[in-house]
Amino acid sequence: MKLSWLAAAVLGAATTHAVEQITAVGNKFFTSSGKQFFAKGIAYQLVEDDPLVDAEQCSRDAELMKTLGTNSLRVYHVDPKADHTKCMEIFDKAGIYLMIDLDTFDTYILPDDPWWNQTQHDRYAEVMDAFIKYDNVLAFFVGNEIISKPTHSTAAPYIKAACRDMKAHRARKGYRPVPVGYSAADIAELRPMLQDYLTCGGNASENVDFFALNSYSWCDPANYQTSGYVGLQKQAANFPVPILFSETGCNVPGPRLFDDQDAIFGPDMINDWSGSIVYEWIEEANHYGLISYGPPVPMTATGVNVKGGFTRAGTPTPVSPDFQNLKTKWATISPTGVALSNYDAAKVSTRVCPTSTASGWLVNGNVALPTIGETFKGTYSTVPSATGSGGQVAPPSPTSTDNPAAPNREIAGMSAGLVGVMLFFTFWL
Ligand SMILES: *[C@@H]1O[C@H](CO)[C@@H](O)[C@H](O)[C@H]1NC(C)=O
Ligand SMILES: *[C@@H]1O[C@H](CO)[C@@H](O)[C@H](O)[C@H]1NC(C)=O
Q1: How close is the Cα of 206 to the center of ligand 1, in Å?
Q2: What domains lie within the chain, and their CATH numbers?
Q3: Spacing, Cα 205 to ligand 2 middle (Å)
Q4: Distance from first CA to last CA of the chain, Å, rounded?
Q5: From the CA of 391, which ligand is nearest?
Q6: pLDDT 10s per residue in the chain (429 long)?
């Protein structure tokens, strides 16, 4: 294995990269040769700090990922000071893009007491600086599931402020326009307002370049209607920027059939969505894994790459039948979408900034974004929009009515996601 990655690294230095850079145009992703890009992705976080530093591990995983048919990974935590060259090159050669979260364990924007200051800015920027040089970086996230209940909605302007400042950093440094976006928890009462809020106001310098949703509402057997995806689609129609699933999965009752992929890449959704990231590569206590590196070990066991009851490195062994189910599913899916040359980006919708409601969305219209270093004072002042129309305030949105067939699924799904996150924290903090 060592020889193979060394050989790959040497070859990589002498030859061109395997993947084309990707940018967002209108509400789609396009490669530099003008082909639409759809993510067939996997969440990848084997170890707490950074799964992109162990080249032998990246190589073993990339080989198996190629057989699965994945073209992108989401990584939640990286160490900007580490050397990622070899892993990034291994994934590049495997045709795999990376979506990287810019926040770290000590720089999250916190929902109950939001702030956005120079320390956070500089730490986020460090991650961007470390990864921008790789052609196979697909996107950056400024946050993950910061908002999960109505009182958290007052943190939304902080998400937008982080986005504004990371895009300004990208511009100031002359970096290529790697899309900067946000990964939202799927909360039925807040989702429509949040996705509109992050794209409203008419000033592209402050809006997300893409919006992503972590959804656990499709539990096989299910369909487009019963899963609630029909409601997600309604709010994503002709969205202003690319929209995709940054986590999908439901392992109840199991095994996973991944029929959600048929919907995401099928006629109902394909024109509006840019694919999905399946949660997740490694089998661990939350039981979403596609592969494992060995049987569970006692929760208390420690050692190199052993934590939280699981071994986190080695030879990946497919979890059966889930891995094969996804592989078979993805083999039937190869969307082409629209060519950039035939695409009119001006036709996308614009969204109005939602009005606040008493116990729901708490940010009224297009508010002045916090400046760097500003802590939340309890209210926001509404400002006129850059374009006029974007500053309009929308009537209160319908709440849970978009998912009448499965009112509890989103709750169940959300708790699956939150349990995953909580387990993650329990193990790592
Ligand atoms: C940002 O806030 C954090 C948490 O309160 C604090 O530790 C840090 O010193 C602050 N940074 C600056 C530049 O004020
Ligand atoms: C758009 O936002 C940027 C960043 O906040 C700001 O510098 C610029 O003045 C805004 N443009 C308009 C027309 O308001």
Answers
A1: 23
A2: 5-428 (3.20.20.80)
A3: 6
A4: 32
A5: 2
A6: 344 444 444 444 444 568 999 999 999 999 999 999 999 999 999 999 999 999 999 999 999 999 999 999 999 999 999 999 999 999 999 999 999 999 988 899 999 999 999 999 999 999 999 999 999 999 999 999 999 999 999 999 999 999 999 999 999 999 999 999 999 999 999 999 999 999 999 999 999 999 999 999 999 999 999 999 999 999 999 999 999 999 999 999 999 999 999 999 999 999 999 999 999 999 999 999 999 999 999 999 998 899 999 999 999 999 999 999 999 999 999 999 999 999 999 999 999 999 999 989 999 999 999 999 998 988 898 876 555 444 444 444 433 333 333 323 233 333 333 333 333 333 333
Task: Check pocket membership of 18 for ligand 2, CB cut-off 6 A.
Answer: no
Q: Is 205 in the pocket of ligand 2 (CB under 6 A)?
A: yes
**Integer Cα distance of 62 and 384 in angstroms:** 49
DSSP string, 145-172: S---SGGGGGGHHHHHHHHHHHHHHHHH
**Residue 145 a catalytic site member:** yes
**Spatial CA neighbour of 276 closest among 215, 327, 228, 222:** 215
**Cis before 253 (ω within 30):** yes
